[in-house]
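--- STAGE predict ---
source: upstream dedup step, 1 unique chain passed
mode: sequence only
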Amino acid sequence: MVGLLWLIPALPLAGFLMLLLFGKRIGEPVAGWLGTAAVAGSFVTALVVFAGLWNEPEHTYSLKLFEWMPAGRFSVDIGFLLDPLSMAMILFITGIAALIHLYSIGYMHGDSRFPRFFTYLNLFVFSMLMLVMGDNLVLTFLGWEGVGACSYFLISFWFEKDANASAGKKAFITNRVGDWGFMVGTFATFFAFGTVKYVEFLPQASGLAQTTATFIVLMLFIGAIGKSAQIPLFIWLPDAMAGPTPVSALIHAATMVTAGVYLLVRVNPLIAASASWLPWVIAGIGVATAFLAATIAIAQTDIKKVLAYSTVSQLGFMFLAVGAGGYSAAIFHMITHAFFKACMFLGSGSVIHGMHEEQDMRRMGALRKVMPITAITFIIGWLAIAGVPPFSGFWSKDDILAYALHKSIVLYVIGLITALLTAFYMSRQVFMVFFGRANWGPSQEAELANKLAHETAHADGDDPADAEVHADAHGDAHDGHGVVPHESPRTMTIPLIVLAFFAATAGVLNLPFTEHLEFLNRWLEPVVGAAQTQLHLSGAQLTIELLISTVVALSGIAIAYAVYLKHKVDARRIELPLFANGWYIDSAISNFMGGLGRRAFEMIAHFDRVVIDGAVNGVARATRGGAMRLRSVQSGYVRWYALMIGVGTVAIVAFVLTQVSFS
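--- STAGE serialize ---
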């Protein structure tokens, strides 16, 4: 069954090619169902392969398709490495991508470029699978660049708006900075080992010089910072919300942004062989990013921007886990985060769809009454990310905090504060969107009554005309007073329900009570077991840590309840302009790039033209001038050539005579 491994990326690739060639012809909704079927087929194949992987030694299987780049000692194959790490990634990538494709059929309904959207989605899934399945760094980099290109296409999908086009370019350029680090790390790996194949160079990592290992990991870490939006390269991800909401869910919550975490976990033997200060750098940047993004999320008013900064923050937690040696904890949180964040991103898309493209949370409120499925599923995702037991985020986040405490009390305390902020800002979002009073327009209560009257009438089988009369008694919501929110179609709500279920229950993958319940730890042991930090917590220690995490989560929710529902504290005292403007980091970088940075780059370009190109062009001009002068001696007259031979002979004889001694 594992021999079907090649089919997992082949199905999305086939879907992409079919949509590319025939997408416009088949149109909506067939193009959407075709793209969805391709990814769903990939997920089903992944389940079959997963069942077969249990019978393989150490749950590892390699498949070479063909030789790609033979060049002397350097050779790269198109081959796949299936092990516990890549298998875990494949399952949630294909599973969540299939649900997001299904959701997109309803969300993108009526869009003029409907087939093109699914073409890009299928290409993205293929690229992401190549990234995690490739058996060498070059093939991983191919997928890495593929998801980067698809990200650009999808973020700027509605390119008619300048902001969307700019967001796509910003993401593309920012990621190029990280890609430079990945490339240099790949080159250094080949120079150090003579190969870039994981199964060949990772077992040799322990014998590598510490300085070399440190340099390789540092370069790969720069690549991870760019792709996974860590300080200082996180600025692209919030702007990426300009793309359609399914893009936000697929790329910026569940898959692409986790590629950096995957890369670091994959090369964990190199991290173990590097200098002791490097894991501290990884953990420090991770926890700093988590805290910084959490403070920014507190003051955002765009429903998707809150989730964007939340994603940056949660990725910071994953990097904290990697730096603390908790590789399985990083993957555990990656999986649970994929479920609850995809659920909330799609939930936000459902809200935006139901609110007729409104994204400002200040104009929402009380939506649970008219969008019950969206509200319930979003609330489950909220409880998971807030860290409320027994939802999945509680277990994965506490797992990371346990490793952070083992590493440093400072990392642990900052992590706890960030967890408190997470519970607060996510509760703020839920209260502003689904609770409180309706803020849909000047006649909010009339609109709500109108909506409820319609739903009641249809539920009771009444004549819709009677519902109109009933609604008129409460005011007509179609007089331009505001929008009338509505629940999304089933193609959008079914994925929400499935994701909410896993957001609630995925914690069972790695419960900390006994080793027998730590399924994910034992599954990943062949990949990370040797390098992973070993925790030995007593029952009392575990209980205390779980209680502290629970109290922190509930405290964050209680504070948000007091501020946004009971109004005991003025929200403006918390939503500081510093936070609302993202600590002015983005604007500072933009000002630098447009001001001093632009002038510096222009000076560098001028130096390149005048000095570098001038030197090269000067050599060329001197060579050409000398050649032009030498041409004059080539006259074509035999007597001239005879004269030159004579002169040359006399010169040689004279030189020889000067070297002879007659004494």
